[in-house]
Amino acid sequence: MTKTERIDTVVIGAGQTGLSVGYHLAGSGVPFVILEANDRVGDSWRRRWDSLRLFTPARFDGLVGKPFPAPPGSFPTKDAMADYLESYAREFKLPVRTGAQVTRLSRHGDGFLVTTKDSTIEARQVVVAMATFQRPTTPEFARDLDHRIVQLHSVDYRNPAQLVPGGVLVVGAGSSGAEIAMEAARGGHAVWLSGRDVGEAPFSLDTFMGRHLLMPFLFRVVFHRLLTVDTPMGRRARPVFTTMGHRLIRVKSRDLTSAGVERVGRLRGVKDGLPQAADGKVLDVSNVVWCTGFNPGFSWIHMPVFDASGAPIQRRGVVSAVPGLYFVGLNFLYSVSSTMIHGAARDAEYVVKAIVRRVRERAA
């Protein structure tokens, strides 16, 4: 038997967006709880590959009220980011319940029913504070590869020790794929990188100009203020960022070439148990790392609030078709920076203001 509670507002997810929502809710007087599926706040960062560092400097990695504890121009590790989020929740005494994975969200009267393994919560408002990167995807022909080939999705990749001797094919040529390909090449593997060339940032992160001049301009001005859903430039750019992804940031094409990584085009399928590129070349590899993205993973939300691609239909996180339902953390929810920490904080503040208005209108 599961117990039923009544809580005014439920926030689902205790990542940077969920904690940002919690920070603003804590100052609003609205009763709330934050539900986190993992055992610890920050575990979604801890479980990424070991060598991962953030692409944004520390000056952009702090949430409201607590700067990130590192030199402003440094790039924190994923574990440092995880520990920061955990300390943030603790410092501001945010009501986070860990190990509380939501299995179903549905309408209940004029509110919502939030179901976890151990409890059911009746809520007037629900904020889904999760990115549209929840469920890893791989092509159907992955199942046809020889069973001796080690297959990992980027979500499960930690370090080269997981790879067996022999060639490595990394599928997906975005930033994650490029960094994993570089790491495998440094480990002595022959490496092929498959996928469309996404381009690259026209500067290096590791120069004074890149860290202290170009990146602040890019993140504070271009990604945060110019490319938004409210500007013509941003509306034109949005389909590109939501369907084609970002350019390479840290790793450059010349770095891949220098490391011996061979670029191949998209995969056609499988031939004789081995991956085959679009040009017909068969790749004799012992490992495949799939950096092929994710689907939104919102099948547990039982409300008609999604478009044909599975993305929530919303405006700056507010779902007008279902009053009381909100999203934060989505790719280009308001701007390019919406999936970055400083952008997520702004989106969270906007959504909390909408929640407070709704609570006051109901009270009146």
Please identify which CATH superfamily of the largest domain we are dealing with: FAD/NAD(P)-binding domain
Q: What radius of gyration results from the CA coordinates?
A: 22 Å
Mean pLDDT over all positions = 92
How many angstroms separate the termini?
36 Å
Coarse structural class: alpha/beta
Determine the CATH topology of the largest domain: FAD/NAD(P)-binding domain
Number of helices: 8
What is the C-level CATH assignment of the largest domain? Alpha Beta
Sketch the major β-sheet.
7 strands, mixed
Q: Order of helices and strands, N to C? A: EHEHHEEEEEEEHEHHHEEEEEEH
By DSSP, the count of extended strands is 16
Number of domains: 2
Which outline best applies? globular
